[in-house]
Amino acid sequence: MHRLVPIVVGLLIAVAAFSSMTFIVRERDYALVFALGEVRRVIDKPGLYFKLPPPFQNVVLLDKRVLSIESPDAERIQTSEKKNLLIDSYIKWRIADPRLYYVTFGATERAAQERLLAQIRDALNASVNVRTVNDVVSKERDKIMSEVLSNVARRAAPLGVEVVDVRLKRIEFAPEISESVYNRMMAERTQAANNLRSVGAAESERIRANADRQRDEILADAYAKAQAVHGEGDAEAAGIYAEAFEKDPEFYRFYKSLDAYKQAFKDESDVLVVDPSSDFFRFLKSAEGAPQQQ
């Protein structure tokens, strides 16, 4: 038993020494190997690596993934019209040069985040200060993001940082101008709605006038056709009457007298002042229509 103790101690010392001389680099990390405070190697491939034990060499790991930074508070930025806007943004970035990044910021991300947020603030001011509220809110929002991305990427490159993307999440009016801007927008929308209504009313009148003209044309054509048919019917009836009159003149006179009676007495309130001995009543007193005796 006493002989095993030195062996176990020796094994533990060997394992500790071996572990201090090896390190693992994951796919998500960069590894910086330092010797006496100086960067000797930069490793960006995953795997098992060897180094000298401390204090001769030590390793610092940096995250190589794409990271995101969101502005903690909305930035108050002034437009060319001297109106304040509240803008929320976020940035996606990653470490492009581990050695340069470590020299600039050390092993912490906080310093890099603060520097990038300050650069975004400066870039937003440069792009928004020369534009109107309408440009920032709607017309040139994509162009502003492109300008900010280009500006921040150019300034971040010497720091060992690659800026992947910059986005504007939210753009709002500052409280002191919100009401006036909303009133102006409402007035503009009301004017646009009134213009549309006037155009619609004019179009409605045009359509209605066209429909009335077509209706009048159709009615006139129908009336002309009806009158033509009516005239043909009257002509045919007159022919039939003439033929009947030629065959039996007395019957024709009798029929026409009955028709005259029907028209004369169709309303009970009508008053007819006629001499009873008039020829008009000849068929009322005699079916043969003989003249009345004096």
User: How many domains would you count in the coordinates?
Assistant: 3
Order of helices and strands: HEEEEEEEEHHHHEHHH
Q: What is the number of E strands?
A: 9
**CATH homologous superfamily caption of the largest domain:** Band 7 domain
Class by helix and strand content? alpha+beta
**Outline type:** rod-shaped
Q: Considering DSSP H and I runs of 4 or more, what fraction of the residues is helical? A: 40-55%
Largest sheet: 4 strands, antiparallel
- CATH level-two architecture of the largest domain: 2-Layer Sandwich
CATH class of the largest domain: Alpha Beta
Radius of gyration: 54 Å
Overall pLDDT: 81
Number of helices: 8
Low-confidence stretches: none
Determine the CATH topology of the largest domain.
Answer: Tetrahydropterin Synthase, Chain A
What's the end-to-end separation, in Å?
178 Å
* Beta-strand proportion: 15-25%
Membrane topology: Single-pass membrane protein
Protein name: Protein HflC
Pfam family, one: Band_7
Family: Belongs to the band 7/mec-2 family. HflC subfamily.
